[in-house]
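Sat 14:20. Reprocessing the chain from the morning session after the first attempt stalled halfway. Input below, unchanged.
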Amino acid sequence: MPSRQLRSVPWATQLEWEDVFAGLYADDGPQSRGRQEWGVKRVKAWTSRGKVPHAVDSTASLVEVWLRDGCGGAYGPPPVSEHEIRLMYTMAFIRFVNGVVDANQRGMYATSVASIADQLGLPGWFVDLRHAGTHDTLPTLPLLRNGCKQALQWLRSNYWILQKTYLANTATEVRTLLTRYKVAMKQKAKGTEPPTLSIPTLLSEITTLTTSDNYNDVLLPSLLDIGFLVPTAIKKRADLPMIALPTSLESLWADALACFEHSWPGFAEDLVLQIVEVVTTPPSSTEVQPQAATSYQATMAGWAHYCLLNYILPKPSGWEVSLEACLRRPNVFTRYLVAAFADARPALADKLQPFIQAFLDQQNPTRGEPFTPPLPRPPPSAAINHISPPCVSNVPKPAPKPTPTWTPSPWTLVPAHWYRRPAPIGCLPDGRVPDLDLPDWFDTEGEVLVQTGVVQLPVCHAGTVGQMEVDEQPPRIPHVPSPRPRARLEEAGHTHTTRNDDNDKTMETETEMDADGPAPPSPAPQPRTTLPTHLDPLTPHHQHNHNPRPDLQAVAARVMLL
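Finished this time. Tokens:
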């Protein structure tokens, strides 16, 4: 059976595609706008990966303009002029109609846009709106808003729902054919009753329904379900510690796996990756999951071991992704798979042995010592006396015992017992390979990520910050000393006052002496930079601002001063 040509899609799984579909078509409520914006950003990420279907790109463009317009003007006027909104609507609509029509041009001579639109079920006034936006006066804003809503509805019915329904129906048919294949193989093994359809015919129907770009979402979930690769009866499954498949179970699905790998090269590797994810994902505590049983996970690991030995490791290359997946998720099952790599590749045995040993140490906590912090801590009494020496009672107390001097040190030798549980270089102490992939929320634009300690400042172009009068010397921000406690100030005879002058927008700190003592000399004025009121980081306006969202321009101006 010849291999099919692969077709690349920008989404990783069908679940990601469905999440984007749900986000783009979320309700227009205030809480749903964030989901729609996330859907638009995800489509932009898909565009950077490769070619995106025209229906997906048009949906994201129309939704983006709809959000720019305040959901059709439902949330007040947009931040741009009406002419700009009309231009954006018109361009998105023209690209939508042209992309749908051009994809269906057939023959040597071009067919009219109106006739192709009629064949595809596009409303006729879509073509008129596209013609008016291209060659005539821009359509009115209410007409463009109505066209955007109907275009999104047409895309939802003719692409998104159709694609989702097709995959669901295909998965149901494939599951039925897999059940018939299992029954036919059991009848063949017993020799009691000939199957109604030959086994090659059943496998041919499965490979006809399934393609190289959807077997991850149609075929693999059914194979990983209980009743197929994993028998329903627990006594027919594999078990620890050997994780060896029963001979009857292996012969039941060997022909099917060989056919699938021949039809779609790389199928076995995708199956191994799915199995590694299943056997290393912790079960949810809120529901009972049969897949969390040890016998289920052991049987899945046995099938991964079978695919490694028969389809992946015999190849000279192409097994690196499977090995990395096992190293990133260490447990008893992935250790069994890593050992298979070491046995099949003698050149890797010495390099993989530290990982295998780290997996064993993780499974047997008694092999190592418990974790203790390397840095010493000072005695509590010494720390208290160091922080507040005046807070000592006047009542006579016995002489304290001498306490050893404590000097904090930034560097300390690692305790020797840490080396009793070694880990490979570049791994965490438990032997796991660190995952450096960034989460989805990290692509947020123009926000200050205070919680994570990452500050992203906008670029301040000339003329946007304001006019600044800079002295010859580098400016310094005046230091405002922190006030001392009231009791100690009264005892010293000082009065600490703060004056806010609204005229020059500065803050001054004065310390005055009473009549008993002379006033200290005032320090020489320091040169400073004069900023506009709304950008000066030292004005009372910023100190009394209760808005939790920081002013990015003020932060940028202060960073420029520093």
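The chain has a mean pLDDT of 74.
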